[in-house]
């Protein structure tokens, strides 16, 4: 059996998405939660780390605001509300999710025909919603063809009322929104490039890292992501979401099936650095309480027992545990954030499966054992681990 693994790295962000991320609420820049968390970094060190991103965002906002005021339809989708980040349910504002789904169309040299565009738009809304709407293993996908379909689908969606309203509005205005986004993309590219200077060195370091063979797949595997043996991956750097890994398993309906799973990864430009920082933090006591807290919930223990038997996708877990998909996603988000589970994308069904990440449990076990050692023994262990 031939194995095909192809990784394509883009040299620039998707500027429309980057612009909207700069205009919207950003948890690590707008909240004190991360700054106040216990870690090997002091608050001052975190502030210094974030400073270039704050300068970059303010420069972007200063230039984008008057531009967006000429496009009030798009400006109406900017969302400055704090959002829950522990849940894996799409906490992105509706237009952010929409941009991620329509990236191929918006980056093309010309707009597709009205018939093709309408098909892509309906598919985009279905993909935005389908993860939460599949209530059982028997439901394969969500079908959106009319406003009535969307309204019916939203009845079973666990998003908040404000997002439901914006999705309905976005569907009703989808053609006008696409026309305005198409006009905006060249402006956003120009503005984005002009504002990159504060983070230019960090972006350059990220791109240099991407040149090393196997670095991307190694990073994703370390972060708990796996995919089938045959895949084509496009990696797009993300500046504003500097620490994020945004996965989109996608299909291209205009192409003949190639037997290759197409995956787009939005990879934050600090993900390599943050992973290295996390490894260093494992030799510090501060990470252990968070991991123990993640293991301290009965529902998460039930989920872990289920995943210990076999990898499962969301709807399987929700059905077998008697919980809503949104509840399961909330707990999966916490387990993922503490490296206790990982994700896997299957080649044929293009579904995300969750699985136990044994390394995370080994680290937790080692951390507990270290508590029983005197300081000298712990220093010897740290030295050995570092050399290894």
| Shape descriptor | globular
What is the N-to-C order of secondary-structure elements (H for helix, E for strand)?
EHHHHHHHHHHHHHEEEEHHHEHHEEHH
Residue runs with pLDDT of under 50 for 5 or more positions: 132-139, 251-257, 381-388
Mean pLDDT: 79
- Report the strand count: 8
Strand content: 5-15%
Rg of Cα set: 22 Å
Q: Strand order, main sheet: write it out.
A: 1-3-5-4
Q: Quickly count the helices.
A: 20
Distance between the termini: 36 Å
Instruction: Please give the largest β-sheet.
Output: 4 strands, mixed
- Estimated helix fraction: 55-70%
Describe the structure in your own words.
- Helix content is 57%, strand content 11%.
- It has 20 helices and 8 strands.
- It is globular and about 65 Å long.
- The relative contact order is 0.13.
Index terms:
globular, four-stranded mixed beta sheet, about 10% strand, disordered C terminus, alpha/beta
Q: What's the arrangement of secondary structure elements?
A:
Elements: E1 5-9, H1 15-23, H2 27-30, H3 33-36, H4 43-69, H5 72-75, H6 94-101, H7 103-106, H8 114-133, H9 147-155, H10 161-172, H11 174-194, H12 200-210, H13 215-222, E2 225-227, E3 231-238, E4 245-250, E5 261-268, H14 271-281, H15 287-294, H16 298-309, E6 312-313, H17 314-321, H18 325-337, E7 341-345, E8 352-356, H19 358-371, H20 375-387
Parallel strand pairs: 1-3, 2-7, 3-5
Antiparallel strand pairs: 4-5, 6-8, 7-8
Helix pairs in contact: 1-6, 1-11, 4-11, 6-8, 9-10, 17-18
């Amino acid at each position: 059996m031939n194995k095909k693994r192809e990784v394509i790295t883009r040299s620039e962000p998707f500027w429309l998405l980057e612009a909207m991320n700069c205009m919207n609420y950003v948890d690590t820049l707008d909240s004190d939660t991360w700054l106040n968390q216990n870690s090997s970094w002091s608050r001052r060190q975190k502030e210094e780390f974030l400073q270039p991103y704050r300068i970059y965002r303010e420069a972007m906002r200063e230039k984008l605001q008057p531009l967006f005021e000429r496009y009030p339809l798009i400006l109406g989708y900017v969302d400055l509300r704090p959002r829950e980040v522990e849940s894996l349910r799409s906490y992105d504002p509706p237009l952010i999710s929409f941009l991620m789904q329509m990236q191929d169309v918006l980056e093309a040299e010309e707009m597709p025909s009205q018939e093709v565009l309408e098909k892509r738009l309906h598919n985009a809304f279905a993909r935005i919603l389908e993860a939460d709407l599949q209530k059982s293993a028997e439901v394969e996908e969500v079908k959106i063809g009319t406003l009535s379909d969307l309204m019916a689908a939203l009845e079973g969606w666990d998003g908040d009322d404000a997002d439901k309203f914006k999705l309905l509005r976005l569907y009703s205005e989808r053609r006008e929104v696409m026309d305005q986004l198409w006009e905006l993309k060249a402006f956003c590219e120009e503005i984005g490039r002009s504002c990159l200077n504060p983070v230019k060195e960090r972006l350059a370091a990220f791109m240099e890292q991407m040149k090393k063979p196997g670095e991307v797949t190694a990073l994703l595997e370390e972060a708990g992501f796996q995919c089938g043996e045959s895949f084509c991956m496009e990696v797009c750097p993300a500046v504003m979401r500097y620490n994020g890994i945004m996965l989109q398993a996608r299909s291209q309906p205009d192409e003949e099936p190639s037997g290759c799973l197409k995956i787009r990864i939005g990879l934050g430009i600090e993900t390599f650095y943050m992973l290295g920082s996390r490894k260093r933090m494992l030799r510090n006591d501060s990470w252990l309480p968070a991991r123990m807290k993640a293991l301290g919930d009965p529902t998460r223990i039930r989920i872990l027992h289920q995943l210990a038997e076999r990898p499962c996708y969301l709807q399987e877990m929700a059905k077998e545990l008697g919980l809503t998909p949104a509840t399961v996603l909330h707990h999966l988000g916490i387990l993922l954030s503490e490296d206790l589970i990982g994700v896997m994308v299957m080649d044929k069904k293009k579904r995300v499966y969750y699985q136990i990440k044994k390394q995370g449990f080994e680290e937790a076990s080692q951390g507990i054992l270290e508590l029983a050692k005197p300081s000298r023994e712990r220093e010897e262990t740290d030295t050995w681990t570092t050399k290894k």
